[in-house]
């Protein structure tokens, strides 16, 4: 077992953004993303403004842009879908480099990409400035049902342990000259996944035993969270407030 | 006057629901301040016995009494406060986001308020020399540190009986010694389940040998570990080069309270 451990996407820092309480950040991100998603696609200026806002927050957080950009990988399926849109959508056609593409499809693809990128960017900012355990405590403060909070909390705690199990199993496989090259090896991989499941399940049972031994009676109290001051709320509200203003302006302008 | 034993196990028998019988009438008495090693080969029933001490398993036959209180359903919560079990894998024991929260888990379950919990946490972490790591995440600690925090999690409940299941497994020699130093400073009755015979020799004046679900021997550790025939009959062996007649046994150290080496 390694003692290194990881904090997920968290990048240590001491910026204003890092210091904000998690629940305030979660709410801010939620409102901002809703504002972005509800903006009509043809108002390009609005998306530029959103990007400008996020760039400002990124600069204030001190998180490396290169790190945030890596998070965009999760967007890949959307990119593929967006790339297909101009070919499959109907309506008015335009010629681009000799290809006949749907005008609506192009606009929709652009909008989809812009919204997905802004959404991922915002989430990455949240994840890189908030420790996973603070995030869980923040969700608890936002009155997420206790069972969900506990499940998330255990996930945060044991992700490393399970990943470590998986890594050791891989090393043990490879040490016996195994390498997954094709469907012939899927059986081995499936067996490993099964073994990992059984191990994790058994660990769950042992953890539960240990909890019972210390008088667990069905309620877990997390205390990593901290209350938000009025100033915290004001700081956290800046991003979503600007976002909502832009979204409203874009709607009014588009209609 | 007769004092109440810290632990009294009487004629304990147990079979798992699948019919496999593990314990066949185990009797064991421990007195206040006693440190006892529970020895035995794999599959002897040691862990099953341990799980009876705080009522995780309930006796099929016989009884378990902790400081006068029988282990029965109606006072399980009090039993779990009285008996602190440190499990073999600290990753099973430490599940909260930070060390302090984990050590506070037991006291919180006992219904203590915030200040009282905080006091218990700092007291327990100080006892294992981990006060500086209160706000760390358990997965950021070394294995030896995690084991010490696991001990703190049960100390925070101010138990009346401490039970350690294989405390030295996976520890490097320095962590092993640090743990021994900590255990020596605690004046709690302690049951150490182990294969590590030199550890039993160092810490426990008395040893109990469990094999095939019965107590095969119960005598001073010094006698037990020099009885080669007995050890061989129960698949126990001293490590190569360890000579019990040269190392000072626990019974000699037990009389004086030694200052902690750190």
Q: If classified by CATH, what would the architecture of chain B be?
A: 3-Layer(aba) Sandwich
**Strand residue content of chain A:** under 5%
**Structural class given helices, strands, pairing of chain B?**
alpha/beta
What does the radius of gyration of chain A come to? 23 Å
Q: Please, how many helices of chain A?
A: 10
Q: Going across the major beta sheet of chain B, what is the strand order?
A: 6-7-8-3-9-10
Parts with pLDDT < 50 across at least 5 consecutive residues of chain A:
1-5
- The CATH topology of chain B corresponds to Rossmann fold
Shape of chain A: flat
Q: Most extensive chain contact?
A: A-B, 33 and 35 residues
Order of helices and strands of chain A: HHHHHEEHHHHH
Main sheet of chain B, how many strands, which sense, barrel? 6 strands, mixed
Work out the helix count of chain B.
Answer: 11
Oligomer: heterodimer
Helix coverage percent of residues of chain B?
Answer: 25-40%
Strand content of chain B: 15-25%
**Radius of gyration over C-alpha positions of chain B, nearest whole angstrom:** 18 Å
Please characterize this protein's 3D structure:
The complex is a heterodimer of chains A (255) and B (262). Chain A has 255 residues and is mainly α. Chain A has a domain at 16-131 and 226-254. Chain A contains 10 helices and 2 strands. Chain A has a two-stranded antiparallel ribbon with strand order 1-2. In chain A, helix 2 runs parallel beside helix 10 (230-254) and helix 7 (132-141) packs antiparallel against helix 8. Chain A is flat. The model of chain A is unreliable at 1-5 (pLDDT under 50). Chain B has one domain (7-254): 3-Layer(aba) Sandwich (Rossmann fold), CATH 3.40.50. Chain B has a 6-stranded mixed β-sheet, with helices on both faces. The termini of chain B are far apart. Chains A and B meet through helix 7, helix 8 and helix 9 of A and helix 2, helix 3, helix 4 and helix 6 of B.
């Amino acid at each position: 077992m390694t003692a290194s451990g990881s904090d997920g996407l968290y990048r240590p820092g001491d910026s204003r953004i890092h210091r904000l309480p998690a629940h305030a950040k979660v709410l801010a991100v939620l409102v901002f993303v809703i504002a972005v998603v509800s903006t009509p696609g043809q108002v390009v200026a609005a998306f530029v403004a959103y990007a400008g806002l996020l760039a400002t927050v990124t600069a204030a957080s001190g998180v490396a842009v290169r790190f945030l950009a890596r998070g965009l990988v999760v967007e890949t399926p959307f990119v593929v879908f967006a790339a297909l849109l101009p070919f499959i959508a109907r309506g008015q056609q335009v010629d681009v480099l000799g290809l006949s593409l749907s005008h609506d499809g192009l606009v929709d693809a652009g909008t989809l990409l812009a919204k997905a990128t802004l959404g991922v960017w915002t989430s990455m900012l949240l994840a890189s400035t908030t420790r996973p355990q603070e995030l869980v405590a923040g969700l608890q403060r936002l009155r997420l049902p206790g069972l969900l909070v506990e499940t998330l909390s255990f996930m945060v705690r044991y992700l490393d342990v399970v990943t470590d199990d998986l890594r050791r199993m891989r090393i043990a496989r490879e040490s016996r000259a195994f390498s997954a090259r094709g469907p012939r090896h899927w059986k081995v991989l499936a067996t490993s996944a099964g073994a990992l499941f059984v191990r994790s399940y058994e660990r769950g049972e042992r953890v539960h035993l240990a909890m019972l031994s210390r008088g667990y009676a069905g309620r877990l109290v997390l205390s990593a969270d901290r209350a938000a001051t009025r100033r915290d709320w004001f700081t956290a509200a800046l991003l979503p407030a600007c976002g909502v203003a832009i979204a409203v302006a874009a709607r009014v302008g588009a209609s | 006057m007769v004092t109440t034993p810290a632990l009294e196990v009487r004629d304990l028998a147990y079979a798992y629901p699948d019919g496999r019988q593990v314990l066949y009438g185990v009797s064991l008495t421990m007195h206040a301040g006693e440190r006892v090693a529970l020895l035995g080969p794999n599959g002897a029933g040691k862990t099953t016995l341990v799980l009876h001490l705080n009522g995780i398993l309930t006796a099929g036959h016989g009884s378990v009494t902790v400081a006068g209180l029988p282990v029965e359903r109606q006072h399980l919560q009090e039993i779990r406060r009285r008996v602190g079990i440190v499990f073999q894998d600290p990753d099973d024991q430490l599940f909260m986001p930070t060390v302090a929260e984990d050590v506070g888990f037991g006291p919180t379950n006992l219904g203590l308020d915030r200040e009282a919990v905080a006091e218990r946490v700092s007291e327990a972490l100080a006892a294992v020399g981990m006060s500086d790591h209160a706000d760390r995440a358990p997965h950021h600690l070394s294995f030896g540190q995690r084991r010490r925090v696991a001990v703190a999690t049960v100390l925070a409940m101010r138990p009346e009986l401490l039970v350690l299941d294989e405390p030295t497994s996976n520890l490097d020699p320095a962590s092993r010694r640090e743990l021994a130093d900590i255990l020596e400073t605690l004046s709690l009755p302690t049951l150490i389940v182990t294969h590590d015979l030199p550890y039993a020799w160092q810490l426990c004046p008395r040893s109990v040998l469990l094999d095939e679900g019965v107590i095969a021997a119960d005598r001073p550790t010094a006698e037990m570990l020099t009885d080669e025939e007995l050890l061989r009959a129960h698949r126990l062996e001293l490590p190569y080069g360890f000579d019990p007649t040269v190392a000072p046994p626990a019974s000699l150290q037990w009389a004086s309270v030694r200052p902690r080496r750190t």
